[in-house]
Fold:
Amino acid sequence: MRLRHKPVKIACFTSGMSLVGRRVWNGVVAFARDRRDVIVQQWSLARLADPGFMAASGCDGVVMIDGRAGDFARLPRGLPAVTTSAYLKSAGIPRVCDDQRWLGELAAGYFTRRGFQTVAYCGYPFHHGSQLRGVGFAEAAGAARARVLVYEVKGSPEEDVAFNSAREQRRLRAWLRRLPKPCALLAFSDTLAGLVMQLALDEGLRLPEDVALLGIDNDMLLQRALPLGLSSIEIGSEKTGKKAAEVVLNWIRDETAPAAETLVRHARLVPRQTTDRHYTEDDFVAQALDFIHEHKTSAPTVMEIAAHMGCTRRTVERRFRAALGNSAHQVMQELRLERTQAYLLESQAPLKAVALACGFSNDRHLCTAFRQRFGMTPGGFRLSGTG
Structure:
């Protein structure tokens, strides 16, 4: 039986610090930082090849930030251990990871609410998380009656041929040329989206007019190297790291294994140049949307939009409904609520301040609209970190 005063030692193993891996590690560290009963250490996966390493390390539990089947097999049987990676369909140990299917659903909703009738997903057939993102994306887009196209990068887990095979890049170029235009495309990662951007621009395609492009990770280092600002979904993997450490700690203390899978939902969508407005072929509506985006904090009324466009309110409503299937008021409300979600996750400002910053007249109106749209209060959303 563990003595209460003895700190729990949790070892984190990784093959190298990817962006997501760093965020997960930061979450594990944050979990332990303010606790006296937990110590965390980071080790290379290569250390598992040493048969005596685990015994010598004295760790009580493990968080596998990444790894392959052979790495998981080297862990001592019975040792509390979880993985935060969605790479393998079955890792043989409990998984605590970002909800991959939900990320796809989030992207699909973002596109279909902007009127796109054709959407596409580009991912990897050998990556379980990529497949789940594609499934969530296709199901949500299909439910909105959008046409869904899929491109699977050829290759293997050992070699990402998208980046070192001229043949695969020619194949991807040809697929991009064949896409119905306009189209909204989700790539599995920012890295893959960056390649898609490069090839699309080389083919003379316009972003976002021909292809609206969205990545996942919000990799700021990569952003600096891209010719256009890439819209991206930033995953809150720090939350995943914290949850993984919590699950391992509870397992050690309770001596009861957790569920086979614990999914974490925490993400925000960061729009940039590659998806900078609702898509519509109606130039009138596109200009009105640009006006709405430019004045999103002041929340222009439909009458103010009409005055800006030099027409009647009735004309604004008729053109919006014809182009987007929703009234101008509904579109503006959706944009305000999207801004509210991001604001709630990014700040601890009181609801009154959030309401004013996001275009609501007061916090009561914000709470009513938010509950009607998402089925929870703004405070509940902020606490859960979900969307």
User: Anything to note?
Assistant: The chain has a mean pLDDT of 88. The CA atoms of residues 2 and 48 lie 25 Å apart. The domain at 100-235+270-275 is CATH 3.40.50.2300 (Rossmann fold).
